[in-house]
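ENTRY TYPE: paired fold submission
RECORD: A
CONTENT: sequence, then structure tokens
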Amino acid sequence: MDRWREYLGHTVNFKTRKKSYKSKKTLLNPETEWKIFENTHEAIIDQETFDNVQRIRANVRRYPDGWGEAHPLTGLMYCADCGGKMYVHRVNNGKRDPQFTCSQYSKYPIGSLCPTQHRIRAEAVLTLITDMLRAIAEYSKNDRAEFIRTVQETQAAQQTADISKKRKRLAAAQKRAGELEKLICYTMDKSVIEAADVEAIATEQTTNRIFEMVNAIAEHNQRRALDLYYDLLTLKEPPMRIMYLITRQFQILLHLRDMAGKGFDNQTMAQKAGIPPFAVKRNLTQARGFGAGQLRQALEDGVALEEAVKTGRMNDQMAVELFIIRYSAAKQKK
């Protein structure tokens, strides 16, 4: 059907040729030599249906033994357990009885990706589909309005799920592109990117997330702070390392707050706090969200929670979560 553009209402010339007028054998010309005249007659099918058929047929496997034809369900069946494609097999006993099996089961080691082969006769699947279509047709006749409403709700739910899935893929792709751009900028003068460069970029990203988390705590945005914490856990960051980085950031803020009160310049404060000079301003801005007493109390609480984790009195993940909730829950007096 991929060559039957006549179904779409087009006329296709010069599809075939002959070596000589004496030869009765017809040869197929390359598609680049065809002459296609569009919309010359009424179409049998629309473009969308044609494209869907091509998409389905692109996944169809042809048997090299002469059986040739593809089953109507080929490329449309998927395993309910693992989500893998189900391939059609025909019993080689002269009956050519088609059966579908899960493609993931036979991959080595056998049974690791899918527990069973899920062999099912194609005739049984077609019977189930026929019964389902009859039930749907009967339902649509009995209550057409309800049927239309159900279809619309199902389509809307599917579209919402598809949009959500695509947004997540887009966000992941944008994040990956941003990480690659940072890595390229970081290694601009190098001809080879090494593992140490990737680790340095990853460490910087973790530090930035910690800064954003402390900033969310200072703004008492508990949801944002916890989301950043869960993101770090997803990235396999150990909870106690996250706790260490949070308390380190609080210590930097307390140190900068004290030095700013004594009139130190930015260069000196950066040197004593162990941070880049350009980061002094944003850290001072963040420090204003806390009182000096609150910062000191946070450091003491961090030490107490670390001791509770090491002595087994508290789970490490819960300890960090409680710390974030405590200091982001409500506005505290300075």
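RECORD: B
CONTENT: sequence, then structure tokens
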Amino acid sequence: MKCLYCGAENDNDSRFCMTCGKQIPKCPTCGRVITSKDPFCMYDGTPLPAQLLAMIPDEIEVPIYQEVAQTSAVKQPTGYCMNCGQPTYSGEDYCDACKAAVMVANMDYVEPVVVATPKKKKKGGVIIAIVLILLLLVGAAGYLAIANEWIETPEFLSFLQEDEDRSKGKKDDDDDDDDDDDAGESEGEGDADEGGETDPSAGENDGETTSSTEEPTEEPTEEPTEEPTEEEIDSEDDPLLYFVENCDKMYFTEEDIADFDAEMCRYARNACYAKSGRIFSASDLQEYFSQFDWYEGTVPASEFHNGLLNHYQQSNINLILEFEEEKGYG
């Protein structure tokens, strides 16, 4: 930029001439040198103050308009930095912003396109769902394990037996009521038959014939009381017989079989199998159990399996085996 007064060269941003020391008149808005006394700036139309116009000499010796226009022109970018995206200008080898080497030059400036990186979806919800499912599976497995252990306990088995005994006792009571009704009907018929018969000797003794017979008077009959059978009395006195009769109905303890010898243990243990209809290959066992009315040998020994035994029989068999091992009967 040349001074309007002396024509000396000065920097573009200088406010005073470095040679003559006079103030260089510039537009207060765009900062360009004012070369005429026109009341408005020729570059942006800003109104110029009178004091600024008075500083401009009447005659300008050096034609500086072209030079001022060229020096004050806005620089246009010729490219952009591939590292940071800032615009670069002609003649620059390094970016002013990031100091990286200019990768693109001598081309029309293009605004860099900022590509938004997709946000990663949070996996926290999926992980929580997986953890909850695993916890549910573990809880269900634990519940089933506890339930299976409880089913095999003696308390649960005794509960099932009590329920079975209650239902069986109710059925027996109904059968007893039906038998009592049948017995009452048969007794009534017997009384009627006895009352209809006449004594033939009655007429011979009196020497007279009677035209009518006296009606018999009914006397109250007492219902017969059931007395324990001989077999039941013997089973209570004989511990082996009591075991044989009830091994499929109740749990026995070691105290119940404390007086058993080796032969009694053998008969007691096989009684549990006989209750389920096993046919024995040993003749003495087959002969012993054949004397009982409840024994029905229907399953050969080769086809018999423990699945035919109920929980009472299995428990009593284990009791006998442990007792035989303890006593050395094996």
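NOTES ON RECORD B: Strands lie at 79-80, 87-88. The chain has four domains: 1-74, 75-113, 132-181, 230-327.
STATUS: closed
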